[in-house]
Request: fold
Amino acid sequence: MRATIKYRIQIEEGIKRTQKNFEDEVRSILTDKRSWPINFIQDQDNYDFVINLSKAKTITNICNFKGLSCSDSLKKQIYINNYRWINGSKPSKHNIKDYRRYAIQHEVFHQLGFGHSQPVKGEKVAISVQQTISIGEAKKNCWPLPWEIEWVNKKWNQN
Reply:
């Protein structure tokens, strides 16, 4: 049986993107059959964590990361970098749609309790790799790999 996790969407004041547009994109990513084996439900009032679309400066102030998105598992907050959401990241080698898929899933992976891994030369890069920085000589990939799915299943989908 799949676990159910509820999330809230929030857009930082001053970002020119509609709430519905961002909500729809996030929902599409998290409910795709290639994503995490969790039932993700958006609930603006009763939620397990918040996905924020945030300005780069806000993320630098909160997470001390420049140019990246971040996840604060203690405060149950994900901060998606609006600049990257619009422009992507050349080192990831993704088009914008795939970069967004990667970014949401990477930060949600942290909320699920997991950390980073390293790219492996010649293999598909894992979601747990900081693809915004580099994928090395790995092959681009925007969906969880089987071993990442297995980790999530073991932790969250116990019968």
Observations:
- The chain has one domain: 4-154.
